[in-house]
């Protein structure tokens, strides 16, 4: 708009000059030439202006921007983190907290000293030291209430701020490592249990070898008896190692859902055949109740064989006194495929039922050992079923019997 207004003014000036030249007695042709020259000069000047350097929007000076308060920007950045973070000033007072911190520790009002929330001397000493030295620090801190939690608490200064002349700020963050600690504890318990299970047969083997080298050196009858026990112990150790390897292989692929179509009817038939010698020894009759049609699920055939072998073998061993094990395969239209294994043995007291799938958990250690158990059978079953997105349902009544159902 400004440029158009200037154009009209220039044109008026050119017309006035030409008219003045004409009135002052100049040749009319000269006046017209003068007008044309003026108009040309205006046009040339305007086109120069248009093709000149591009105009740049006026900017705020950089120095002004540096004076903008930076605290809201810091706080909104912290909102994007899922780590609880508190912002504190050099006076140890709280300036703000992100949403994760609110969720983990509740709403704390700004202006409150951090000692109002954390009385732990180690946290307060750490904060004091960082405020004095500007060096980051971290410690491990545990809280008992409302539930047992372990945190790595870290404090670090925000370095740029004081250079800009802003207030010094420090970030106090809490990394929750409770789950990591729980897994560590489980792993070390597991290693301790596995070593203990292996140590017992090893000690017994060593004892028999020493006896055969010493007191039983010239006694072939005793040696024969000891060798039979030693074979038993060696078998127990290899069963345990096999089960441990199965478990670790299953853990490696726990997140991969199997995708083969497996018909459970022939699988159950195969398991019954493979357990026939054991059932015969224990004088247990395994009765199958199979549907006419297929009972297909998405699965890994070998793993499903292992699940039903473990369940039916347990039913034969622990339910031996019932003399019968019933296996039902159900494939109701529109409903989930189910396999139930029922025995009529002593049953399992209710308090043990929730823990049966824990590694090395047995209702009676002596009973399990005498039946060649490793204490890992149901843990393996649970791992396989988790990978198959299937459930294990246990119903048991003392003196009546036990029913293990796998629901796909
Ligand atoms: P194990 O190798 O000792 O058999 P499992 O993990 O297969 O280990 O089973 C854990 C425990 O569950 C067994 O030691 C036994 O006490 C109990 N148990 C499993 N199945 C049955 C059952 N059908 N009847 C009674 N108790 C059972």
UniProtKB/TrEMBL annotation:
Q: What is this protein called?
A: histidine kinase
Asked if DNA-binding is a keyword of the record, the answer is no
What are the protein's UniProt keywords? ATP-binding, Cell membrane, Kinase, Membrane, Nucleotide-binding, Phosphoprotein, Transferase, Transmembrane, Transmembrane helix, Transport, Two-component regulatory system
**Pfam families hit by this protein:** HATPase_c, HisKA, PAS_4
**Which reactions fall under this protein's catalytic activity?**
ATP + protein L-histidine = ADP + protein N-phospho-L-histidine
Quote the CDD domains the UniProt record gives. HisKA (cd00082)
Domain Histidine kinase positions: 193-408
Q: Which GO molecular function terms does the record list?
A: kinase activity
Does Transmembrane show up as a keyword for this record?
yes
Localization, per the record, is:
Cell membrane
Q: What superkingdom does the record give?
A: Bacteria
The organism's taxonomic lineage, starting at the top: Bacteria, Pseudomonadati, Pseudomonadota, Alphaproteobacteria, Hyphomicrobiales
The record ties this protein, via InterPro entries, to: BphY/WalK/GraS-like, HATPase_C_sf, HATPase_dom, His_kinase_dom, HisK_dim/P_dom, HisK_dim/P_sf, PAS-like_dom_sf, PAS_4
What EC number is given for this enzyme? Answer: 2.7.13.3
Mainly localized where? Answer: membrane
